[in-house]
Amino acid sequence: MFQTHRTNSSEPSVFVVKHACKIRDGSTLLDVACGSGRHAIYFARRGVHVTAVDRDPNSLQGLESHDNIRTELRDLEGDSLSDLAWPYPAQSFDTVLVCNYLWRPTLARLIDTVRIGGFLIYETYMEGHEQFGRPSRAEFLLRSNELLDRTREQFRVLAYEEGLRRDERTGDSSVKQFYWGERLK
Fold first, then answer.
1. Tell me, what DSSP letter sits at residue 126?
2. What are the pLDDT digits (tens) for 86-111?
3. N or C, where is the chain less crowded by C-beta within 10 Å?
4. Overall pTM > 0.85
5. What pLDDT is stored for residue 85 in this prediction?
6. Any bridge partners for residue 72, and if so which?
7. Cβ partners under 8 Å of residue 88, min gap 6
8. 8 A C-beta contact, residue 97 and residue 30
9. What is the spatial distance between Cα 41 and Cα 35, in angstroms, rounded to a whole number?
10. Angle, CA of 24, 32 and 14, to the nearest 5°
11. For residue 2, what pLDDT band results from cuts at 50, 70 and 90?
12. Percent over 70 (pLDDT), the chain
């Protein structure tokens, strides 16, 4: 029997690390729903200027003590259909990273935050994950190929995977989409 997914890993995602060489030293990265900051810390140590955003103040504690990390306490889901709710201008970051988070009302704005020539890195749960635990509600699970469909007009796909995965470090299983795209227009 598969174990349920744990989200408290302090190690960066294998998918993210595998493709991290694409991110330039000195570039800017927005880590959305950063949690404990495992990716923010990883990229900051590589010389990337990271803005780590989360709505939980406990998650952000200690992150600013790292060089190259600026934290922002924000709830990006509040009144998400209002233009005032999305705090980042279009094309304001070289890279936008999202891991284990989905809020569709802001997905288009989030994607638009990536600069031309920059990257969108997205890893989160998809349909089929409900058998392994949370998230299990459809509004928090991507549909098959959803990230490909959402980015088709503006991005070139550099890496894409979806389906059942077993984390070799923890033994946990999940059903996820892994997306890495470069913005062309």
1. B
2. 899 999 999 999 999 999 988 999 99
3. N
4. yes
5. 64
6. 53
7. 30, 109, 113
8. yes
9. 11
10. 60
11. very low
12. 91
CATH number of 14-183: 3.40.50.150
Half-sphere exposure of 125 (CA within 13 A, CB side): 25
Residue 39 to residue 172: CA distance in whole angstroms: 19
Q: Distances in Å between the alpha carbon of 95 and those of 1, 65, 92, 109?
A: 37, 22, 9, 14
For the chain, the domains span: 14-183
Distance of CA 137 to the CA centre of its chain: 19
Distance between CA 48 and CA 69 in Å, rounded?
9
Amino acid, single-letter form, for residue 62: G
Q: What CA–CA distances, in Å, run from 129 to 100, 132, 149?
A: 12, 6, 20
Higher pLDDT residue, 157 or 167?
157
Longest dimension (CA), the chain: 46
Q: Which residue has the tokens 């890993």?
A: 9
Asked if 16 and 99 count as a contact pair (C-beta separation under 8 A), the reply is: yes
3-class secondary-structure state, position 106: helix
Please calculate the CA angle 24-28-30 and round it to the nearest 5 degrees: 125
